[in-house]
Amino acid sequence: MALYEGIALIQEKQAVVLDLGTDYTKFGFTGEAAPRCIVRSEFWCQAERRYKRLYDYRTPQELYDNLVHMLHLLYFRHVLVNPKERRVVVVESLLTPTLFRETLAKVLFIHYEVSGALWVDSGRASALTLAAPVVLVVSIGARDAEVTAVVHGCPVLRALQSQPLGARAVNAELARLLDEDNGRELHLSDDVLDDIKVRACFVPGREAALRWAERGVPADVRETRRGADVLVSRRARALAAEPLFARDNDLASLPDIVLQCIVQCPIDARRSLAGSVLVTGGGAALPGLRARLAQELRHLADQPPYKERLRELEFKFHSAPAHENSVAWVGGALCGAACAGGGAGGGGEGRGVSRETYARTRRLRDWACLLHNTPPSHPHWDMQ
């Protein structure tokens, strides 16, 4: 390699990829297979003398301060890079509040003076890792479960489904079962519940779960302990994830929202979506969850109100190309590497903006706004 070529490679700055989750934040560089760090979405608040969560805010100014502290922690403690020298790829949900998006852009462009940023929605980013034309992305996060149908690189917005069936719902059920089995209120922290869930809990099959809920969990599922005073019973290990599959009159269980998403999609894409399901998110890491979801989908597809529309669909699941909690981040890294360094170029998979453009307009393109999704040559622009 010539000397000048080596110098050019050294001077080229990789963009950073930012995924600000409710409980955990992923941060790293484009073109890499995994984040450089996965940390809790919290920081040490000097004014309040405690660790404060990123999403714990009441006013826009408090959110601004939270983002400033969180990004300072990521840039200067975990990856040690100058934010002015790096473009940013932001991976976010399509349902992210406008206040959060606008405040994050203000922090990036004004406080940290980044040269450009690219916003990528998590559904398309996850589908990008498979290089498949049609993907049904089931993202089980900390707070919500979202189902996004991605058809030829475009999310079907009218079919987007979301319910509060994330990891926190499993933690709440696990805490309730532990309190009942130990005969007292344990008041366990989120860290302890996460530790118990990761080490001991699993998701049984559909028939086993129904049988165990009525007759009790058999003795071949061993009990365990967390420390000296917390008994993790068989019931708590096996049935903590049941709120995800419990049906009610609103049909708001995890399998229901998956089927409702497919029903809302064009009829010619339903079979392809059912045969290309990708389960992602930190809540998807429970052993047996993907197999249980497949059983529930096959069972409910033959029941009203889905029987007439989803008859004879065959559900197939992809193996995630990365760990479940970082699939969307990996997709953002791929998208950023392909879009001119992940910056202000725009790209086909995201919304890019440079610092100069933001300084003129002071607003971002919204995912759901028709004006921001209409080509410049469309006659609707003449009516403004």
Fold and architecture overview:
With 384 residues, the protein is α+β, with helices and mostly antiparallel strands. The chain has 13 helices and 15 strands. Strand 6 (88-92), helix 3 (98-111) and strand 7 form a beta-alpha-beta unit. Helix 2 (60-79) packs across helix 3 (98-111), helix 4 (122-128) crosses helix 12 and helix 9 crosses helix 11 (289-300). The chain starts with a helix and ends in a 23-residue tail after the last helix.
Shape: globular
Rg over CA atoms, rounded to whole Å, is: 23 Å
Distance between the termini: 55 Å
**What's the pLDDT, averaged over the residues?**
87
User: Strand pairing plus helix content: what structural class?
Assistant: alpha+beta
Parts with pLDDT < 50 across at least 5 consecutive residues = 1-10, 341-349
Biggest sheet layout: 6 strands, mixed
Enumerate the strands of the largest sheet in spatial order, edge to edge or round the barrel: 3-2-1-6-7-15
How many helices? Answer: 13
N-to-C SSE string, H for helix and E for strand: HEEEEEHEHEHEEEEHHHEEHHHEHHEH
Question: In percent terms, what proportion of residues is strand?
Answer: 15-25%
Portion in helices: 25-40%
Q: How many strands in all?
A: 15
